[in-house]
Amino acid sequence: MEKIRKLSKYQGFWPVVVLLAILLINGIISGGAFFEIKIVDAHLYGRLIDILRNGSKLMLLATGMTFVLATGGTDISVGSVMAISGAIACSIVDGRILPGAGQNVQAAILLALLGGMLCGAWNGFLVSKIKIQPIVATMILMVAGRGIAQLITDGKIVTVNSDSYYFINGYILGLPFPLFIVLFVVALVLLFTKRTAFGLFLESTGCNPVASHFAGINVNSVKWMVYTFCGVTAAVAGLIESAGIKGADCNNAGLFMELDAILAVAIGGTSLSGGRFSVPASLAGALIIQSITTSVYAMGVAPEITAVVKAVIVICICLFQSAEFKDKMRKRFSGHKQERTAKPA
Amino acid sequence: MKRILAAILTVCIAGLALGGCAGTPAEKTASAGTQSGAEVVSKAEGNKKLTVGFAQIGQESGWRDAETASIQFYAGQHVDTIDFKFADAQQKQENQIKAIKSFIEMGVDVIGLAPVVETGWDAVFTEAKDAGIPIVLLDRRAKVSDDLYATFIGSDFITEGQNAADELAKLLNNKGNVVELEGTVGASAANDRKKGFDDQLAAKYPDMKILASQTGDFTRAKGKEVMESFLKTYGNQINAVYAHNDDMMLGAIEAMKEAGMKPGKDIKTVSCDGVKGIFQAMVDGEANVTVECNPLLGPQFFETCQKLKDGETVEKWIKSDESVFRADTAAKDLPTRVY
Question: Which of A48, B309, B311, B330 registers the highest number of CB atoms within 10 A of its CB?
Answer without folding.
Answer: B330
